[in-house]
Amino acid sequence: MTDNAPKKKEKKAKGTVFVRKEICKGCSYCIDFCPPRCLDFSPDFNAKGYHYPILSPPEGCTGCGLCGLYCPDFAIYGVKFKDVEKLKQDAADAA
Amino acid sequence: MKADPKGVLTGIHFIDGDQAACEGALAAGCRFAAGYPITPSTEVVERFAGRVPLVGGVFIQLEDELASSIAIQGAAWAGKKVMTVTSGPGLSLMMEHVGFAAFTETPCVFVDVQRGGPSTGLPTAPAQADMMQVRWGSHGDYPMIALSPNSPQECFDLMIEAFNLAEEYRVPVFFMMDEVVGHMIERVEIPEASEIEVTERKWTDKKGKDYLPYEADESLVPAMTKAGDGHRIHITGLTHDERGYPVMNASTQDKLLKRLLGKIEINRDKLVDIREDGVEGADVVVVSFGITSRVAGAAVEMARANGVKVGHLRMIITWPFPSKRIKELAQTVKAFIVPELNMGQMVIEVERAVVSDAEVISIPHAGGTVHEPEVILEKIMEAAR
Amino acid sequence: MSANPDVVMGVEVENPVMPYLRQDRLPHIWCPGCGIGTTVNCFARALTECGLDLDQTAIVSGIGCTGRVAGYLDLDSFHTTHGRAIPFATGLKVGNPDLKVVVYSGDGDLTAIGGNHFVHAARRNMDLLCICVNNFTYGMTGGQCTPTSPVGAKQTTMPYGNFEHPFNLPHLADACGAVYVARWTVYHVKQLTRAMKEGLNKKGFAFIEVLSPCPTLYSRRNRLGDGVDQVKYYKERSKINNDVDTKDLSLEFQGDITVGKFVDRERETWLDAMNNRFTSVIGDKYEPYGVTNGEK
Hints:
The complex is a heterotrimer of chains A (95), B (385) and C (296).
Chain A: E1 15-19, H1 29-33, E2 39-45, E3 51-55, H2 66-70, E4 76-80, H3 81-94
Antiparallel strand pairs in A: 1-4, 2-3
Chain B: E1 11-16, H1 17-28, E2 30-35, H2 42-51, E3 58-61, H3 65-77, E4 81-86, H4 88-104, E5 108-116, E6 122-126, H5 131-136, E7 145-147, H6 152-169, E8 172-178, H7 179-183, E9 185-190, E10 234-236, H8 250-265, H9 268-271, E11 274-277, E12 284-289, H10 291-305, E13 310-315, E14 317-319, H11 323-330, E15 335-339, H12 346-354, E16 359-363, H13 373-384
Parallel strand pairs in B: 2-3, 2-4, 4-5, 5-8, 7-8, 12-13, 12-15, 15-16
Antiparallel strand pairs in B: 1-9, 5-6, 7-14, 11-13
Chain C: E1 6-8, E2 11-13, H1 36-50, E3 57-61, H2 69-72, E4 76-79, H3 85-95, E5 100-106, H4 107-113, H5 115-124, E6 128-134, E7 137-138, E8 144-145, H6 169-176, E9 180-185, H7 189-201, E10 206-211, H8 215-221, H9 227-237, E11 238-240, E12 257-264, H10 270-282
Parallel strand pairs in C: 3-4, 3-5, 5-6, 6-10, 9-10, 11-12
Antiparallel strand pairs in C: 1-2, 7-8, 9-12
Helix pairs in contact in C: 1-7, 4-5, 5-6
């Protein structure tokens, strides 16, 4: 993308994922069934030789968590920022 | 602790061995039995099915012996004292679960009312031909205990002991009846519950993850828990570590098997239960168990009337085998005579203990009826000559 | 929470499946692309949502790849003998009716060697949730034919393709009297989670069949690609139909798949039937068994 290309409306991620790359077996369930299609194989591989998932592009993530429900290796899960916000609020209220 | 009075039918009864065995189980605290009909054992569960609703337990007739022999183990892990009841063909089907019980250390009693075999054999006639099967029939090496009653009264009394031993050592215990003992009707005296000693399961007092299901003290018997107590245990038939987790390597296997077999080995002297009649100074000793001990007893009396110095050693507990005592006696006895309703099973153990210190004479019998006392008498007379 | 927790916006978060797992046993033994782990995710979510006391929830497995599920779940868990998960679970449930007992095993374990127990537990309406992960093959032993293998599928013991007629498991369960019968695939994670939750809360014999890929054996031998390719096949060829007659649920090799909740009915459980019978015949002398805290 060049500087003078027309700017798209900036998309902001609504959530993110966490990957325990060391236990990923590279099955690509999460990548193929990610509703906003924002996961891809990493160029790197883990100690077992598997390419694990990374957010690509990160701003597409809705935090729906479906990747975590699909992952047969318990190696990825997603969180919604609004849920984290609520957790934070609840913790603050409790304190 | 004392028996729960709910299960104890105190009084004098005129019942057969199968029924007495059922009463023994109820008195011992058995509150779950599963079984599949098979002659000549069925009367045990028939009586249990009628009695247990009033005692506060359950009987379930399952689709086969495979199911029965594992359902009791599920119930044991739910906290119940349990038994299943069968005869030869059913026992053959149960063999895999004997190993599961031994390996997972699930206390349970297998009642085997022996009949003639192999295969369907003689469903309505006696044998004692499952003696080696219970000892060795499940694959792998495993600890177990077997008792051999010879009367309805003993079916009651020894059944309580069978349950107590299963709880104490957490091993499968075999109650080795036979068709004659099972169907013989005699006087059975059932005492007050307060006179019956029952062994409670050794429960852990540890909480949550502090509890390791297979961590044992010097008794080698781990404390047990049950499902629902919050320990979140894992129990597997795979080789496992103290956490109960599968760990499949040679060192874990070695450690586990040595502990499991050790439970019986270190208690062998305590477990051995024999009745001796005139064995000290005897020239000939008849070694017997179960129904054959009654016939052998008659033969011994007849031989004594003929002036022979003959003793009688009757095994109440057949496994573990009383090798030490037989070896001791072999130093002074000329011959051992081993009548049994099979083609020569326990005689192998006698030979193993005696080696070449004395003569060992087998009196095999293919089953279908009991020995004639005269056959045993004849062998005693020959050996004494 | 693990030693190195994930942190987002200053808040520690965790994979929602983790509290239900024996984390000291991970990674698990299942192959890349195997769907069993996906079913475990759904089961963990169902445990969260079902409202049961997990100290009073036990899981029983048989032998095989799916048989290993019990060992990974942080519940009272029993990895029993081949085919005998259902009778062990029967003993556990009847031994302590306060427990919720789940049987979680594979198609070979539950319907071949354990087939007899399956039909009888359904007939008795034993209060169990029975989850069958159906990957159409024996994975642990290297890809042999099972009672659910579709006609034509190649297996090591059917090298020219299976010629035996397979079971239609929902129909079998229905015919034997199961009170809840559903079929989903590992593509249908949300529906499967809901079915597992319903199954956990159902009283009586509830049966859920879950179609799941075995990429290492079934897919490879039949040239069906990776695990994910099978899940894509499930996505493309599955149709949800809750109103179908269960006799029309047969599966053909790589054919259309009907998924859904096919049966949801009420019937007296084994324990209730026993208690009702004894109460009516024996009367006041009979104290109903196992109902002190209510059957769960």
